[in-house]
Amino acid sequence: MKTDNxxxxxxxxxxxxxxxxxxxxxxxxxxxxxSQRIRLLEERMGQVLLQRSTPCRPTPAGxxxxxxxxxxxxxxxxxxxxxxxxxxxxxxxxxxPLAVNxxxxxSWFMSACQEVLTDAAVVVDLRxxxxxxxAVLLREGSVMAAxxxxxxxxxxxxxxxxxxxxxxxxxxxxxxxxxxxxxxxxASLSRAPMLTFNRKDELPVRFLGQFGERALTPPxxxxxxxxxxxxxxxxxxxxxxxxxxxIGEQVAVGDLVDIAPGYPLDVALFWHRWRFASPVLDxxxxxxxxxxxxxxxxxxxxx
Length: 303
Known about the structure:
The protein has helices at 5-17, 20-27, 31-45, 60-83, 102-116, 135-140, 173-179, 186-191, 203-209, 226-234, 248-252, 279-295, and strands spanning 50-51, 57-58, 94-100, 122-128, 145-148, 157-171, 194-196, 220-222, 240-243, 257-258, 265-274. By secondary structure, it is α/β, with parallel strands linked by helices. The strands form three sheets. Strands 3, 4, 5, 6, 9, 10 and 11 form a seven-stranded mixed sheet that branches. Strands 1-2 form a two-stranded antiparallel ribbon. Helix 9 (203-209) links the parallel strand 7 (194-196) and strand 8. Helix 1 packs across helix 2 and helix 2 crosses helix 3. This is LysR family transcriptional regulator, chromosome initiation inhibitor. It holds the Pfam family LysR_substrate. Keywords: DNA-binding, Transcription, Transcription regulation.
């Protein structure tokens, strides 16, 4: 069974944009043309590939096809660029959908992108996702590569260690004086307000687990912004887990202190990418590994 490139492009465009109308605008065709291409593709495959929801989402069968559609799009764009033919309105620049956790994005990751994005021929579509959950997007075919905390290779992908991001539990001196006058313990941890990035953020729970207190449910503020998180921390709103690279100046001037200096939390990060030949993914992988070597602690060597 052969697939039709125009139908695949329409399918991928609907998933990227979330609707038939937005996909039509991206492809410079009418919504009815997109609908017809999707219908013909589903007839060819013999099953429904898209959930007609808001936004549109792939069915289980559609998830398998989504990665193939993105791979075809990448290979086509690279081939056209190599022969100097240009992309045309339906191809456009070479697009790299990537998943990265917010802390990496706001520290070391963008320097890697800057090495690859030398002109408008390549664009990135960054999805901010928790390092413990970004691998899900790879399985779904939504992204071509991801920074993840999982060392397990996903089917069709390769994985390589990047390094260690060390987190410390930080708070203002005033907050520590109020809630931890006798040090960090079960009773004080249960009362002290805690800052969490979002409901997927498992770092505070893992920190509490070092004290055998995973069942604790302290008052929790959810602040899904790196800048907002740091501002809330410095204002004394609560204690929170912060990458050590973010807090050097605040520690030096005494604005923040480590509430449990002997209990850092190390998160190993890994680079997952599709396992097929692609010059741009190769360049990005090399740039990511170089940026990680500069911005992270060295990875732990296997015993």
